[in-house]
């Protein structure tokens, strides 16, 4: 019997990050190459810009162990995000060759709140319309999209869901009917929040491209837990506030 291949439905992310601590380089048998990990955070203001909260993220890259990030700098990073729905810290596996130092950290640094851009491919597994109080948006659409991506360090596929909010603005309201359960979609949006109770990332949609016709979806009771995840579930904890001297 042929094994079912896990779908490749990744979520790519581009954003700006300030390390919370020095990078940790993991060396095996004095190897000069390995995984370099750095604690950082997403700056989020919620879907309506009504909050100000930082959420921890682990920055990971497979590179020369000398390629570390400094706590006194702001970096532009691009890579694949895996945000499991079990309360564990999201991981951004960034591409070392695209790392760009933007500026020194400090009181005059730019505001990157809600500026992380997600470009993803996934399968719609649920949708619901939600009435809003805003006069210019009317009814918005909340869509849960299933993703699956390869974890290079653990060498397993990771499955996770992301909630996408499609505003009811004039340029997006006509796309609401395109979000049908079982349809493969390519979405561009901004990461704006993490829902603590549902343990899911929240993205505001900017653009949509429909990839396929409707397919049969096997529903899984929420929250969707990651396959091959052996660590105990812990809550996503907001990162500590950065105090600039």
From TrEMBL:
Protein name, entry field: Uncharacterized protein
Superkingdom field: Eukaryota
């Amino acid at each position: 019997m042929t094994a079912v291949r896990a779908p490749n439905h990744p979520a790519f992310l581009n954003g700006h990050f300030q390390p919370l601590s020095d990078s940790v380089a993991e060396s095996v048998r004095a190897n000069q190459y390995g995984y370099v990990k750095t604690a950082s955070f997403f700056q989020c203001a919620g879907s309506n810009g009504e909050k100000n909260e930082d959420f921890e993220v682990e920055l990971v890259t497979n590179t020369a162990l000398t390629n570390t990030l400094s706590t006194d700098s702001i970096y532009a990073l691009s890579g694949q995000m895996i945000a499991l729905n079990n309360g564990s810290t999201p991981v951004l596996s960034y591409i070392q060759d695209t790392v760009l130092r933007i500026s020194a950290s400090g009181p005059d640094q730019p505001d990157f709140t809600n500026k992380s851009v997600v470009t993803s491919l996934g399968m719609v597994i649920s949708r619901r319309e939600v009435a809003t109080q805003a006069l210019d948006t009317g009814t918005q659409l909340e869509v849960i999209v299933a993703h699956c991506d390869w974890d290079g360090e653990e060498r397993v596929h990771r499955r996770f869901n992301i909630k996408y909010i499609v505003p009811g603005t004039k340029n997006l309201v006509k796309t609401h009917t395109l979000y049908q359960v079982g349809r493969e979609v390519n979405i561009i949006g901004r990461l704006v929040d993490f829902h603590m109770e549902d343990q899911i990332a929240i993205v505001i949609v900017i653009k949509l491209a429909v990839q396929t016709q409707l397919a049969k979806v096997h529903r899984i009771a929420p929250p969707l837990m990651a396959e091959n995840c052996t660590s105990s579930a812990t809550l996503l904890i907001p990162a500590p506030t950065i105090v600039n001297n």
